[in-house]
Every structure is written in structure tokens, then in C-alpha cells.
Amino acid sequence: MFKSFPKGGIHPPENKMTAGNPIEVLPVPSAVTIPLAQHIGAPAVAIVAKGDEVKTGQLIATAKGFVSANIHSPVSGKVVKIDTTIDTTGYKQPAVFIEVSGDEWVDTIDRSQVIEKEIKLDREAIINKCMECGIVGLGGATFPTHVKMGIPAGKKCDLLIINGVECEPYLTSDHRLMLENGEEILTGVSIIMKALGVEKAIVGIEANKPDAIKSLSDLTSGFKGISIQPLKVKYPQGGEKQLIKACCNREVPSGKLPLDVNVVVQNVGTAYAVYEAVQKNKPLFERVVTVTGKHLPKPGNMKVRIGTPVSALIEAAGGMPDDTGKIVNGGPMMGKALADLDVPVTKGTSGIILFPSEESKRSEVTPCIRCGKCVTACAMGLEPWYLSAASEREMFDKTEAAKITDCMECGSCSFVCPANRPLLDYIRLGKSTVMRMIRERNTK
Q1: Residue 208, pLDDT score
Q2: Main-chain phi, psi angles of 60, to 5 degrees
Q3: Which listed residue, of 44, 118, 210, 326, carries a Cα 20 to 30 Å from 95's Cα?
């Protein structure tokens, strides 16, 4: 039976044109730029200096603070400088610049292709290994995984939900990973279950991936406590609160987290990274990225070293079409446009989408007609028209009262608006302002 969340949701064109394209390994670039802020929380601190020689998989920056993550070199070569760079978000970040020479890996990484199913580490050792290897959530949020695994005092978890939804149009990297590395993913799920101390895990997958549903369902017979839950195709099913509601019918209250309903959610890519860290001692220094677009000559799914310039991915996909009007990092609904193609791939880069000029221009904005379509589409039960209008008028106290911080910024409201109102733009402004106001209040 296909389940889903009951409130709101939309059905944008899927455009999953790379779903049948196997993962290909992109060649190691001649140079990489490695931002030190590739995760939610404090940026890591470089422990290498100009002139140092590094190997692939070597620790080059350590976590700073509780919510932070280690960073490892994705290549072997020489550190040419420690400086700032513009990352995929458009902000300046500290970064390590490495000139590549060969591809010599640290000898502690198990590079064999043998799938290791036996989990030898205990709970504490698993969490420490994920911390050492710099594992973060690969679904987009990039929250440090070791922090998510550590259940705080007074809290409990009885269910792990694995997000295999990939509801964003165009993106297929998770889909391919489930097809090609299913056993490793399910072993990773078992590892996370052991770290959390739970006996049950549900892998949620939308019905537009029947091959992944069948493949993982067939494999679950060899893994205790893991089940596959097919889901209706509806955006934004990949949102944590929506996925929890769909999979186990638990409602995460406003302002609360999944753990408040005894659930932890992890992405399938994260489960694979956990497998590699715990079973192969491999840090997170590469990931699968979907590079796609309707006019792109050779769209596909590429395993890419962190720090590789986006321009190299586009070149590998056949080069940028002449009619390209916008290049988006991430999915078309929640991703952000890139201003520079030399920005590096980071741990949170799930896709690069090239849109033709005719699809890149905003339509003319007209007055709101109070049709209510944005309210119907909102999966969080908010009133986007009101939040947007109040934010535009800087009435931030009213937006806070109307629960603007509950907005997941999925873009459904803007997608359905017949007046082409920039609803999400103003809601993002209001949300960030309100969150700053809350932080300031809490520090007084």
C-alpha cells in the first residue's frame, strides 16, 4: 500500500531523465578547493599549512565545537594555500587549496570491493568512527551524523526512518545509489540502528522508483528489522516531518524535532557513507552528484571528489549548452542558482541542473487574488500569502506568531501561485530575521 502525508503537497513535473544512467566515476581533477564549512554548525579548523603534502583520505581540518565535522583531503598532492573561497551558497568561506599529484590513499582505508556485513564495533565506537570520518547528512541538511546518533539524556528513539524519497525533480543520485549499492546501504542502516539502540527501521521510497523498491525489498531478507515502505509520489515527501507522518503516522509538533516523537531520520546516502566509514574506515571525501538538464548533451550521475569545480562536472556532461540561462545547485524546488562555475562540490552537493533560458526567467508578478492555492499546497499547514506579505512589510512579530519558523522552504507555495508572487523569497527573509530575533532574545 502506498502511503503519504495528508496535508498539502504538489506534483511538479519529475524530469528524472538520468534515472537509468549508472553512476560513473569522474576523474580526479588537477586541483581542488575544500571549504571548511561543509556542514551545519561551526566551520572546521585547518590542521595543514601551505607546502604540506597530503594523501587521499588524510584529515586536514578538525571539527570545532559540538555541532561540527572533520574534513579530509579528497586527493593527494600539495597544499598551495589556506585562503577564502566562494562556496555554492555564494558566501565566502575559509578553504584549503590543494594541487593534485597522483592519487595515493592513506593505508588505513580498506579499498577492497568485498561487502562487509558483520558489524564488529559497539555503539560508542560507531559514533566515534562517524565523527572521525566526518560523516554528515547527505540529503541536503549536512547535519553531523555523530551528533544525530547521540540520543540526549531524557530522550529516546524507537524507530529509524531512512529517506530514499528523493522527491526533488531532476535528481536521481539516491535512486542510483539504492540500485547499485543496496547491500552496503542496508548494512549502513543496520549500523545506525545499532548506534541508536533500535530494532526497527523503515526505508521510505516513492513509487516512481519501482526498481529500487523491488531491489531493496529483495535484499531485506538478509537484514533484521528493516522494511521497505513504498510511498505515493508527492512533493515534498522527503521533508522529515512529512516522511515521518507517511511512514509511521506520527505527528511532529510545531517547533519540535523528530526525536520528540522517538524517531531519527537519515538519508540513504548517509547510510552508505556510514557503511564506508564503519566497515571500510573511509572518510567522506566523495559523493554521487546528478548533473542534468533538458539540453545537456550527456546528463548523468557522477561519483565526484569533494572540492572538484562544478565546471568539471558540466564539462564531463558534454559542456554547457548555448541556451543555458541558469545553473542550480541542488534540486529545482529548494536549490539555489550558482553565480560562479568554479565553486567546488561539497558534501551537501546533490545535483547540478542546467536550465535553458526560456525556463530561467521569472514571470510577471501580479496582485494576489486571495485564491488560497498556496495555503492548500503548504505541507506545514501555514498561510504563505500572509507570511510573505507580513515579511515584505517587516511585520516580523506577526510572522513569528504565525509560525514562520515552521516553514521548510520547499517552494510549493511559489510553484502554485497564479499571480507569480515571490512568496518564498519574502518568507525566507522573514524566517531568517525571526530566527535572529529569537537567538538574540535567548542570549540576553
Answers
A1: 97
A2: -120, -10
A3: 326
